[in-house]
Amino acid sequence: MSNFFTWAFILPLLQATIRMATPYTLAAIGGIYSDKAGVSSIELEGILLMGAFTGFATVYYTNSLWLAVLVAMLSGVLLVGIYAFMVVMLGCKSALIGTAIVLLASGLTNFYYRSIFGVSSEYTSIIPFKNFTVPILGHIPVIGKIFFQQNALVYISFILVFATWYFFEKTALGLECRSVGENPFAADTLGLPVVRLRMINVLITGSIAAIAGAYLSIATSSSFVENMSAEKGYAAFAIIILGRYSPIGAFLGCLLYGFADALQLNLQAIGINVPYQFMLMMPYIFTLIVMFIAGKGEKPEGHSKFFKKGLQIT
Amino acid sequence: MKKQKWIVMVLLIMMAFIMAGCSGTDANSKKDEKYKVAVLLPGSMNDGGWSTMGYKSAKAAAESIDAEFSYTETKSPQDAIDALTDFGERGFTIVFCHSFDYQDAAKKVAADYPDTQFITSGGTTMTENITPIYVKSEQASYLLGVMAAKMSTTKKVGIIGSEEIPSITKTLKGFAQGVKDTNPSIETKLTYLGTSTDAGKGKEATIALINNGCDFIFASANAAAQGVFQAVDENKDKGVIGFGSYGRITQKYPESFIADMVSNYEPVFVELAGKVVDDTFKPGVSYFADIFNGGVNVYFNDKLPVSAEAKKAYDDAVAKFKTNSIKIDIGEY
């Protein structure tokens, strides 16, 4: 207990927080694009799996980590394309299609993993992204150690958070995307290509969330494990709501999740005598507390509303 | 409209891919007089641990009696009942139910299919056609614990489990008791992940243990253990050494893993399948597998040998197991 509030405990804890928050961050930032445009991002879990598998397989065959990130993004776009088509163009229920996408991704990745790498107790592994220290920023005391001595995908997630915020808050196109989410019918009368904007946003979701998947298999660990996303996509879906549909809010939510994850592992490692199930509950308890204090925030007015030209539903 | 057509085409092509994926299962073409063996797995057959072992062992057993082979992965207790009913309906000779908790499903189903032998890996239910196998994997992990206690310089060892279920906890308890019996002053730190598939979490848990001074790490965490192994290997410069489980981890990471425990259901599966064929099978008795009949093994690493003192303690413990003078408290089972 005495070593509880020491640097030796806190610094590694915060470093782990960032590492564990990153997959949530990438997934949630991706999800925000479709949520802002009024399409639910419940399919995230499936994209994570897909990105994890295709990223891993690409590194295995080509040894190129950056190519793997690209291929993962592409696979995410392809997979989410099905979702976008069904939900945005045909108006199917997103919960239904989203679940189908998750199951499809789980089945596809398991099947192809088995057929390529076989069934074995010796896992194939690759050489993952390495940590590197960002010049100047990495040498700031404490902050540098926590934020800027990580791997490249972590930095990409930071950049994406601010780029996404800038896009939606400061650019005309971002405003158009938001208006499509707020009121697709009004946006249509103003001459905005509602369906096209929604489609593009959902595809962007696929590409960014797939990086989160790749992060799991080629940055934190160095192998693909079936269903390795372990419900992170659903968590990100919830974090977006927790973060009140804002990129910065979602980022803070992700840090909270990452912190709770890291804290429970570190507390167990210290040897605190609390049932482990209780510690596993911590992220969810945090969520409830934050929801209770902050409220759930307003979702875009036209969220999950089907839009088709000439079809007016009130 | 044109665009929609194009998208439909893409969808159809994708469907074709998926369909193609489905056709690769074991065909049951030859019907008459061939034995049928099936295995029911609680997780992905590719978890690199428990289920992989169950799949391979059952497959070997099926091949040994030239039987048709089938497997099912279950996700829920109801899945298990459905799958067992299905195997019973289709007249399977032997169904290996490779999980402790399948005994409940077997209890519900077995009475309706007296011609099928249900063999459960673990469990306490014994009837005319339900037969439990008990593999004493805790013996092997005890031996690893003995060696860890002799070799740890920081006096702290870390153990990691996926979830608190009997087949995981008994191995971890065996290890902890091995440490304690050998040197009570050594602290064993236990972490549960709460997941069997999140390798990233396994890795972080290991890093947390290492940061808290553990120099020996042992995990029984199914697929999530991959992360544990990687974290140990990345920290070998800090003097961290790992014990592998359910696979030859020492061969993959020869510089950082000193010994493996591998429990192996294959000998006992093959033996029981043979007995069923010869009609010498006695159902409703518990079958045991331990370190003496090949059910569990400890493998050492030539490139990273254990200290002489640890080897001696290991040999002493094996001798004690032989005379049955070590009782491992595995808690409720």
Provide structural commentary.
- The complex is a heterodimer of chains A (314) and B (333).
- By secondary structure, chain A is mainly α.
- Chain A has a single domain (12-120, 134-294), classed as ABC transporter involved in vitamin B12 uptake, BtuC, CATH 1.10.3470.
- Chain A has 13 helices and no strands.
- Chain B has two domains: 30-135 and 265-289, Response regulator (Rossmann fold, 3-Layer(aba) Sandwich); 138-262 and 302-322, Rossmann fold (3-Layer(aba) Sandwich).
- Chain B contains eleven helices and twelve strands.
- Chain B has helices at residues 2-22, 50-64, 77-89, 102-109, 137-151, 166-182, 199-211, 225-234, 249-252, 266-278, 308-322; strands spanning 36-41, 68-73, 94-97, 117-121, 130-135, 156-161, 187-192, 216-220, 241-245, 257-263, 287-289, 296-300.
- In chain B, the strands form two sheets. A six-stranded parallel β-sheet of chain B has the order 2-1-3-4-5-11, with helices on both faces. A six-stranded mixed β-sheet of chain B has the order 7-6-8-9-10-12, with helices on both faces.
- Chain B starts with a helix and ends in an 11-residue tail after the last helix.
- The model of chain B is unreliable at 22-31 (pLDDT under 50).
- Chains A and B meet through α1, α3, α4, α11 and α12 of A and α1, α2, β7, α7 and α8 of B.
